[in-house]
Amino acid sequence: MILWHKKEEKYPSIYEIFEEAVKKLEEKANGYTIRNATEKDLEVVREINLKTLPENYPPYFFRDLWVKYNKAFYVAVSPDEKIVGYIMCRVEYKPGFFKHFLVKSGHVVSIAVLKEHRRKGLGYALMAYAMKSLYENYDCKETYLEVRVTNKPAITLYEKLGYKIIKVLHQYYLDGEDAYLMARPLP
Ligand code: ACO
Ligand code: ZN
Question: In angstroms, what is the span from residue 4 Cα to ligand 2's centroid?
Answer without folding.
Answer: 20
